[in-house]
Structures are given as C-alpha cells and as structure tokens.
Design a protein that fits this description.
single chain, mainly beta, Jelly Rolls, 2 domains, six-stranded antiparallel beta sheet, 4% helix
Amino acid sequence: MRDGLHNFWDTCTITDHHRAVRNFETRYGYFELRARVPDDSGLHSAWWMIGTEAKSDETAEVDIFEICGPDINTDQSRVRVSVHPWNDAGLSEQSLDYYPACDVSQDFHVYGFEWQPEGMKFYFDGNLVKETSQSPDYKMITFLGIYENDSPLWSGTPDYNSDYPKRFEIDYFRVYKTDEMLAWDAATDHNPVAGENLAPYAVAGAGQDWNWDSPPSNMIDNDAYSAFQSVDSPVFPQYLYLDWEDTQTFDTFIMKTAYSQGQAPTNWDLEVSADGETGWTHVASSGDIAWDGNDWHVEEYKLTFSPVQGKALRIKINNANLQWDHYAINEVLVKDSSVSPVNANIASETTSEWDSENGGLLTDGDLTEAAQSDNRPSLPMDIVLKWPMQTAFNEIQMHCWYAKDQAPTQASFQISQDGQNWQEIVAPTTLF
C-alpha cells in the first residue's frame, strides 16, 4: 500500500517512507470469501476494498461486510455493507445492510461480491441479497481485518478478561474474472515503452505529511494542472519518492510548476536506490533556481545526468518559494533521453495550453474524462501542446464523446522548434 493510503484521521501523520507493496490491485470480477467471524463485544471483522489512490479521486471504499460483535444474535445477524465515495465525486454514500436469519459466528458462511462496470452485487451463501448501480471504475485493494476497540455505538466494549487470541477465521478467498475482464487487465497492466516518461509507472510517496487534498500522485498523473502540495510551513529537507516494481534506466528529470515564484521548489537533489530501500546514491542537484512567472502558466526545469539505474528515485527538496506557506509540484517526468518512444502516447508528456478550465484532461490518457472549451468559443482557436524536450512523432489521434454535437469539425496541425515560428504539417482538414 502506498504512503498515506486511506487517510482517515487528521491526527494520523506520516513520519517516514516505506516502499509500496502492490500485492493485489485489480478492477472488476467476482470475489468470494468463506469465513467465520467472532461475536465478542468490542470486535469488528471486515472485508473491504478501497481505491489504490493512483489518482487523487480514486479513493472510494466498498465494505463487502463489516460485522461487529453486538450485530450477532442467535436468530439474526446484521451484515453492514457500505459505499463510501470519499473524494470520488462520481459515487454517493450508500448503506446496503442485510440481516441473515442465523448466528454468523457459529459456522462458516460464503460471502460473495460481484463487481461489474454497470454495478455491484452482494451475496450471502449463494443468494443475492443486495445490489447497486454504483461501481468504482478503477483498481482497488482488498483488506481483510479484525479490529478491537471500545466503541459502544459501533463494536461494543471489549472484555479484556476474556480468552485471547480473537479469531476471524478464513477458509478461502477467491477471485474470478471473465475473458473480457482479463483483457481489460492486460490493456492496463503494461510496462513503459522505451523512452517513455517513467514517472506514471511508479508509486509516488513522501517521507512526511502533505496536504491531503493534493497528494503525491498528482505529480505523476499526466495532468500538468493538478499538483502535489506540501503541508503549511514545511521543514526542509522534504523527501518525495517514486517507487517502481522493476529496475528503470534514466538520465533526465523534469519538474513542472505553476505560480512558480510563489510556491515552486527552488533547490533539490536527486538520489537513486538499487533496491528502493537502501544505498541512496546522489545523482544530480538543481542548484538555486529562479523561476520566471507567478501565474497559471506551467514552467519547467530539466536536469540531465549520466544514465543511472534503480528501483526508486528520491527527490530531496532543500528549499522552496513559500509565498502561500507551502510548496507545490505540478508534474515530474523521468526519462531515458537516449531512446525515442515508439508506439507510445507522448501527448501525456506535454503541457497543454488553451482556453479551457480543465485543459489537463486533454492529454492525461484517460478517455473517461474530457477537456472542454469555454461556452461559445471564438474560432479559430489554438490548442498548444508543449514538450519539455525535442520529440518526434508521425501520428495524431483525437478522441471525442458525443462527437456530432461537440467535436471539432475542422483542424490543422503545426509544429514549432521554439514556440514562436510555426510550420504546417497537416493542412486544414474536415473531421468526420
């Protein structure tokens, strides 16, 4: 699990970094658990899933069951089922509790969870008991847990003189997927193409707290207009981490910031580790940086160095502009400049500039969200994609929803070496 996953109380703080362990992150399927839960007062047994938080809004929690000691009675038990959206604006809070006519602590029972794009279903001993049309559309992590706490209105008060250990007994946990679901997994579970930006394939973390509405994942989400933000009054140095599952080779680091004179880092070091845990080796230093602007326009600073290999990159922030008492990073790129990416979407490495409130969605690679112009735009309108380094390409794709109602109908394409002088590569073309 990544640093800060499922932050629930503000009093829970991060004081150091641990390399992420990604045992089982998945989307969709039929999940089944055969288990027996205890009926002790003060105990709370749960099977739950939460979003991996690879993006800041992928935070939903689905409680397949939460069963507390006081919920269990001889002739009826309460199985609590919940959907908690947290930061996911596409979902809503929902309770789906059901009441089996038995004492669930006396025997093993089979709990089933069917998760499809069109909704979720919940089963008890093979029978459908609850369903909802809500469905998170991103990978989630499975948790199985038993908890003891003194909470009279929830799990009851523990009897500390009773026998220990307490047991939440699990016979099996199984997951089934259709061929279509396996194909979806294969399409998303791929390794970076040589020469591609490596940062989005990492898990981003930190060695200390951050602003919980602007997590480290914001700086590797292919959206130059979302940002990681530190806590107020940060104490330097601050440490940020990118952890990869496999060893990566790179020689270039690029940092993108907006409102840079007010909140951008001004001095940082880069360090790598072969195993992601120990032996941190210095790679490069930025020196003191003087950023140019202090508005929404995204600036970038590039560091190049001799090729290095590692499973983790550590960014040591030594100082920053703190006009608003925090620092922020919009995006980082990590690349091997010796290789040009082939058959890869390189638009995600750009910063897009156009008359839109959500222009970052134009190039983030997520086809479930769209960038939108202001109402009644004046045409022609320029959309500029800026790469931080020279890039070669020979294909342009445009993806549009409700295309006959809101898609561009004519476009031309130009390139520039300096952002000032433009050369047309595709003449004005009607789009069907």
